[in-house]
Structure formats: structure tokens, C-alpha cells
Write a structure and sequence with these properties.
heterodimer; A: mainly alpha; 2 domains; B: alpha+beta; Rossmann fold; 14 helices; 23 strands; ATP-dep_Glu-Cys_Ligase-2 (chain A)
């Protein structure tokens, strides 16, 4: 397939996945800010900014961290390139580029999301209506995924699209886990109820709360959480699950010459697949995840070079 | 029941009613439908159609408006009906005309017979800015130049169809023909169960067949070349590529090496044999045409000249659809085919002829004046609608550059009942069938019907507020 089309599909899927991540992150932070003691409220609210590395741009645009400012910034602000509005717009721009490769259902799912979002933005979102927008984002994301799985031909267009989804998801999981795990561990020194909320916030941010309870029961142990979100292959947002997909997709994608991205992905996948919690504990979660993030970014860059770059 | 708020203007041919205000036989089922429908329900259906078109993203970009401003072309629910016998004649006439035009293009790039025979002057061909001297003696498969032609027709007071304009470069609008049909079938399936409407859905298949036949390679790689998503017809380019199952490429996706064209794919370069290009001649290759063009492919022209790639349509077809050449098409048909033209031309006065120029200047308020190079309804004067100031402006333009203009009588485009804000009223329309030339000349029944939504307006172009209708060619005998 065309390199440019592969790139557009890859980015289209990354942006759509990002929209969902942003909505989940903000949703959990706003809820936590309500539960939290007032002193910690600002810390809770700034989690989405920390995770996405957007603290600076936020402070350039807004005087202070309030729920409403955060809602505007994370959901609707077109000056913020990673707001839900901006990423869905970027996703649609990319989708326009590859309309020829998309089924009518996939295209419509994205175009409809964009049309509805413009409407939502026009009306504005407040603290009391924000949860509806979070639901909407998740729903749109699910419709897109359903349309993609249900109607796309299983060719390289489909593979590049999934590749974008899983690279973005792996990246998001590692970032959220890194920051929220740190906060939750800190909270262990405080009130147990508060600590419980911190851990559930982490799990909810990655849609893994039920998965945790199913696997480990009600007691939340820091190392269990890390294990679940890194090593468990059956948790949809775990690093293991994402890397398995990525390695598998790169195996399936038709390649001309030997491809480096494939090798990098396979090696990272092997690390996780044959890794264990002791190793993670020894290395320290933060260091482990920082290293993971660097490697997943290198894989993303290499995918672009291998399949999409045509400098001549 | 749907009521007409106006009757067709005096002396104008109406597609639904005859001069005694009786419904034409071919339109009876349409009348039944309108009588049985209620206005509120149809208004609901109109809104539904708008929402669906928005969702599908069947929008176009209007030049001169904000970049990225996407608009819907208004879609009218009341179809335009063409009887089986009318269509048979139209089809024969279109085949004949496009055949002659392709013969003409071959001739003016090879033997110049028509010029030597004195039918048309050398100056009119060779001095035409659309003439591409580089195309001389270039051998093209099947001697085909305009693989895809869009012929604009109107129906005059006398009930006969006249050719208004030939579009032999990159005629657009066929996606609206297809989507309008899809929309009508979705909104009013019961209508199609009753009316014997000829299908148009196989157009992409015919187009694919035509494009493959454009190459001598038995299994060619065909692509659609688009200027990109800011082009007004981008939706159509993507739509056709997807329907044909071929790649939609932009200039930057292609490159030329050793006079062969390749596309940049995820597995490396892949050679391209046929380019269905929706980019104008001048922008195809910055090395040969406009050096600032970002839309084209450097070296494409050389590859084309070598015969390693086929362009559809060919370069240099614009000379044959130019308004200055248009008056000669009936002569071409006689000259190349030895047949009488089946379709009429609109009488045309040419500014370049002193006698014609005088007539134009004397009768300006009654005429439509067009630039020979103009397109899309820009740069034209509609005499009866023009102010004194506009008339005087055009008089000076005509005197300064008479060659640049032709004039035609103000045509009475036929009307058809159409939904407008106040209700259902007759509005003027034209017809653009799409004629495909490959191993044979083929077309799907009908074409794109464009309708001027403003009362009395004769300008049907979508860029100037025109809308579209589904076009029904009835199969078999009239019902």
C-alpha cells in the first residue's frame, strides 16, 4: 500500500486512541479531586497534565488549575494539540487522506464523531456535563473500533491502523502507570480509604478495575497492579497485550527488505513476555517504565522510517 | 399532497408537464407519488438526506471561501425523468459526438487532415493555449484522448436536447450521480419498486474497465491522481478510487525513475501503468508545466512521452472542448464519420468573426457571452439579466479581445418541479452524462442533473449555488 496512506492510517488510529486516553484520564482526575482532601486537589487535577507532558502549555493558556479550566483545556481547546477536540480533528484530517482505504462505516464513525464534537464544543462543557462527554468519547471510540474490526479488509491498511492503536495504547499505559503508581504508593502512608481510591483511580484510568478484581480479588497490592498492567497478556491495555499485538502485526505486514522495526518490537516483546515481577521490583518501576517508553518511541520512529519514509 | 406553488414559465419546456399543463406520460408515477406524499413527510426526508450527506462527508470545497470550508451540494428529492426513447437518441448522439472528438484530437496531433481540408483554420487549433505541441506524433493506445468525457446538455423550448459544452479534461460530478441514486433508494425504496429506473451503480466498474483498456499492458496498475483534499472534488476522487479498489495518490506519492512512474509503497517502489488524473495539464509535471506546481510529478511528462505510462485523459484534450472549437463539432462529425450529427449544437456567434462580433455587440442584452477559456460559470454575461454597467463593461471587453468570446442566444433551459423554501416550484436544469471510451464507447443511463435553485436563474453550477437531482432514465417502453 501507499506509504502516505500507511502513515495516515497509523496516525489516525493513534489520535483516536489518544482521545479516549485523554477522556479517561480527565474523568478519573475530576472524580478524584472531589474525593480528595482539599490540599491534594490540585495534585489530582494536574495528573492529566503530568501524564501527557502538557503542564507548560496549560499554564501558558490558563491562569490556574481548576476543574473547568482543565475541562476546557483537555476536551475543547483547539490551541492544545492533544485536546480531545484537536486529536479528533487530526484523526479526521488523516482519515480524509485515506478515505480510499477506509470502509464507509469506519469513515462515517470518524466523520460523525467530528461533527458531534463541533456541536459539543459549540455548546460548551461544564463540570456537570463533563461526564456525558467522557461517555460520548468512549462510545465513539468503541464505535470506531467496532466498525474497523467489523468492516475492514484484513490487509496492511488494517494492520497499520492497529499498529497505531497499540503503539499509542502502550505509550499511554506506561505513562499513566508511572505517574499514578507513584502517587498511589505515596498515599499508602496516609489514610487507607484515600489510598484505596488512589489505586482504583489508577485502574479506572486504564479500564482495568474489573480485571484486577477478577485476577487478584479485592485487596490492592502495589506490585499486583504493576504486574497486571505490565505482564498480564489478557488485560487489553497491559504492555504485554500491546506488545504482543505490535510484534504480531509487524510480522504480518508485508515487508520488502529486512526491517528494523520488526526486530526492535520482537525484542521488547520478548523482554516483557519472559519478564517477571521480581525483575521489575528490582529495577524499580519508574526506571523500568522510563526505559519502556524510550523503546516504544524508538519502535514508533522506526516504523515510520521502515514503511513510511521516502526521503529522496 | 404536494402542491406546486408556481406553474412553469410561459414557453419553457417542463420535464413534468406538457404545454397544456398535463403530466407527461413518462412522469405519471412521479405525479402519483407527489399526490400521495404529504409535505411534512417530504420535508422530513429532505432533512434526513442532509444529515446523511453530511455524515458521508459528501461535501465540496468552494473556491474563494475559507480553506477547509465544506459545503453540501443541495440535493433535491424530486427526480428528473428521461423517457426510454429520449435516452436512446441521446446515447447514440453522445457516442457519435465523443467518437468524433477523439478522432479530432488524434488528427490535430498527427495528420492535420481537418485543417488541410479547410474545415477549421490552423490558427484556431495551433494558437489555442490548450494545444500541446508536445503531443504531436505521440502514439497513444487505441488513439484515445478523452477516455472520460462529460457532455453538458440542455433541453430547449422545442423539447430537443442541445449540447451546451463538451468537457474533455477532468469532468467531475459523477459521484453525485451515484450518491444521489443511493440516497433516493434509501429514502424512497417504494418508488423504485414501481418505476422501471435504469441502474447507474455499475459506473465505477465501467470506469475501471475503461482505464484498464487505456493501457496495452493486459494487467495494468491503475491509480487515481488527486490534487489533494483541499480540491473541490476530493470527495469524488476518493470515492471513485475506493469503488474501483485502486490507490488514490497525490503527486508526492509518485516519482519517476528512468522514465517510468512508480508509487511509494510500504514495500518499496511499484510501477504505475495508468493514471486517472484529476489534475490539470499544467500542474502534472513541474518540469514541463507550471514550475511551482506542488501537485505534479517531476519527470511525468517525459515518462508519458516515452509511452511508459498512460494518462487518462490524455494531455492536450482541452483544445477540443474549448468554446472557440465548440461551433465546429457538428462539422467534425460530418468530416470524420460521414454522418449527420444526432445532437444539436447551440447556435454560436464567434467574437473572432467580424460579422458575428457586430451581431453580438448589437444584440448583447439578448445574448449569453462566454469566455472561450472560461469554466464553472465564471466570467460570463447573461444579457437579459445584466445591468447597463455590466453590459457596457462586456462591450469594452469584447472590443478589446474579441477572440476571447463567443455568444449564444439566451437558452431557455427546461424546468422541473423542485423543492424550494416556499414549496415546490419549477426550476431550470441541465444534464451531464459521462461518456467512457475504451475498447468501446459506453455510458450508464442518465448522468448528473444540475438544477438552478434560484427562481429564474439559469446558472446550475454547484460553485454558484446550484443543486442536483437524481436522474431517472426509464427502461423499456414508456409507462
Amino acid at each position: 500500500m501507499l506509504s502516505r496512506a500507511a502513515s495516515s492510517l497509523f496516525w489516525m488510529a493513534r489520535y483516536l486512541e489518544r482521545a479516549e486516553t485523554q477522556a479517561r484520564l480527565l474523568d478519573v482526575s475530576l472524580t478524584m479531586a472531589l474525593i480528595d482532601v482539599p490540599e491534594d486537589r490540585e495534585e489530582q487535577l494536574s495528573v492529566p497534565l503530568l501524564v501527557t507532558g502538557s503542564r507548560e502549555i496549560f499554564h501558558e493558556l490558563y491562569p490556574e488549575i481548576t476543574p473547568q479550566n482543565l475541562i476546557d483545556f483537555m476536551l475543547l481547546d483547539d490551541r492544545h494539540p492533544a485536546s480531545v477536540f484537536s486529536v479528533i480533528r487530526s484523526a479526521r484530517d488523516n482519515a480524509l487522506h485515506v478515505r480510499g482505504n477506509l470502509s464507509a462505516d469506519v469513515w462515517e464513525s470518524i466523520n460523525l464523531a467530528w461533527m458531534e464534537l463541533k456541536e459539543l464544543r459549540h455548546k460548551g462543557v461544564t463540570e456537570s456535563t463533563a461526564s456525558r462527554v467522557f461517555d460520548w468519547t468512549r462510545e465513539r471510540s468503541n464505535v470506531f473500533r467496532g466498525a474497523a474490526y467489523g468492516t475492514l479488509l484484513r490487509n496492511d491498511a488494517f494492520h497499520f491502523l492497529l499498529l497505531g492503536t497499540f503503539i499509542e495504547r502502550a505509550d499511554a499505559t506506561a505513562r499513566v502507570l508511572n505517574i499514578r503508581h507513584h502517587m498511589a504508593t505515596k498515599s499508602l502512608e496516609g489514610h487507607p480509604t484515600q489510598s484505596f481510591f488512589e489505586w482504583t483511580a489508577l485502574l479506572h484510568s486504564l479500564a482495568a478495575f474489573e480485571a484486577y478484581q477478577n485476577t487478584y480479588g479485592h485487596n490492592i497490592e502495589p506490585m499486583n497492579v504493576a504486574e497486571l498492567l505490565i505482564l498480564k497478556p489478557d488485560v487489553p491495555r497491559s504492555l504485554h497485550a500491546c506488545l504482543e499485538e505490535i510484534a504480531d502485526l509487524l510480522e504480518q505486514i508485508e515487508s520488502g527488505e529486512a526491517r528494523r522495526a520488526r526486530r526492535l518490537a520482537t525484542s521488547l516483546y520478548a523482554n516483557i513476555r519472559y519478564g517477571d515481577r521480581e525483575y521489575i521490583a528490582e529495577r524499580g518501576l519508574n526506571e523500568y517504565l522510563t526505559d519502556f517508553l524510550q523503546r516504544i518511541q524508538r519502535i514508533a520512529g522506526q516504523i515510520q522510517k521502515d514503511y513510511m519514509g521516502w526521503k529522496q | 399532497m404536494v402542491m406546486l406553488i408556481q406553474t412553469p414559465p410561459e414557453g419553457i419546456y417542463d420535464e413534468l408537464f406538457d404545454q397544456n399543463n398535463r403530466v407527461r406520460p413518462s412522469c405519471r408515477m412521479l405525479e402519483d407519488w407527489l399526490i400521495r406524499s404529504d409535505e411534512a413527510l417530504l420535508a422530513e426526508k429532505r432533512r434526513e438526506a442532509d444529515v446523511l450527506f453530511q455524515r458521508l462527508g459528501i461535501t465540496f470545497n468552494v473556491y474563494g471561501e475559507d480553506q477547509g470550508a465544506e459545503r453540501l451540494i443541495p440535493f433535491d428529492l424530486i427526480p428528473r425523468v428521461i423517457s426510454a426513447s429520449d435516452w436512446q437518441r441521446l446515447q447514440a448522439g453522445l457516442r457519435q459526438r465523443v467518437h468524433a472528438l477523439n478522432r479530432f484530437l488524434f488528427d490535430i496531433y498527427h495528420e492535420f487532415e481537418i485543417i488541410r481540408a479547410g474545415v477549421i483554420s490552423a490558427e484556431q487549433v495551433f494558437a489555442n493555449p490548450q494545444y500541446q505541441p508536445g503531443m504531436q506524433n505521440l502514439k497513444l493506445p487505441r488513439n484515445l484522448y478523452s477516455h472520460i468525457a462529460g457532455i453538458d446538455l440542455i433541453r430547449h423550448n422545442d423539447g430537443d436536447f442541445y449540447v451546451l459544452e463538451d468537457n474533455l479534461r477532468c469532468p467531475s460530478g459523477v459521484s453525485y450521480m451515484l450518491e444521489n441514486r443511493r440516497m433516493m433508494m434509501r429514502l424512497f425504496p417504494e418508488l423504485f419498486a414501481k418505476a422501471p429506473v435504469a441502474p447507474v451503480e455499475h459506473y465505477p466498474a465501467l470506469l475501471g474497465e475503461t482505464l484498464r483498456a487505456a493501457s496495452l499492458n493486459p494487467n495494468p496498475t491503475v491509480v487515481v491522481l488527486t490534487p489533494g483534499r483541499f480540491n473541490s472534488a476530493y470527495f469524488e476522487h476518493a470515492f471513485l478510487a475506493r469503488q474501483m479498489g485502486i490507490e488514490l495518490v497525490e503527486g508526492a506519492d509518485l516519482f519517476v525513475r528512468r522514465n517510468k512512474v512508480y508509487m511509494k509503497t510500504t514495500i518499496g517502489p511499484q510501477q504505475v501503468d495508468v493514471i486517472y488524473r484529476r489534475v490539470d495539464d499544467n500542474f502534472l509535471d513541474p518540469l514541463a508545466g507550471n514550475p511551482d506546481s506542488m501537485l505534479g510529478v517531476p519527470g511525468l511528462y517525459a515518462a508519458y512521452r516515452t509511452g511508459n505510462v498512460v494518462l487518462a485523459n490524455a494531455m492536450g484534450t482541452g483544445v477540443a472542448d474549448d468554446k472557440a472549437i465548440y461551433p465546429f463539432v457538428p462539422e467534425m462529425i460530418r468530416f470524420y464519420l460521414g454522418e449527420e450529427p444526432i445532437l444539436k449544437n447551440v447556435p454560436t456567434w464567434q467574437g473572432r468573426k467580424p460579422k458575428d462580433l457586430k451581431y453580438i455587440l448589437d444584440n448583447l442584452p439578448d445574448l449569453v457571452v462566454k469566455e472561450t477559456q472560461g469554466a464553472g460559470g465564471y466570467g460570463m454575461l447573461i444579457g437579459p439579466k445584466a445591468s447597463k454597467k455590466e453590459l457596457n463593461h462586456f462591450r469594452s471587453l469584447l472590443r478589446a479581445r474579441p477572440d476571447n468570446y463567443i455568444a449564444q442566444p439566451t437558452l431557455s433551459l427546461s424546468t422541473c418541479p423542485t423543492f424550494v423554501d416556499e414549496g415546490v416550484a419549477p426550476r431550470h436544469l441541465d444534464l451531464r452524462p459521462f461518456v467512457l471510451s475504451g475498447k468501446k464507447v459506453q455510458m450508464v443511463p442518465g448522468g448528473l442533473t444540475r438544477v438552478a435553485l434560484k427562481e429564474g436563474s439559469l446558472v446550475v453550477n454547484s460553485s454558484q449555488g446550484g443543486g442536483t437531482k437524481d436522474t431517472w432514465v426509464l427502461e423499456g417502453e414508456e409507462c
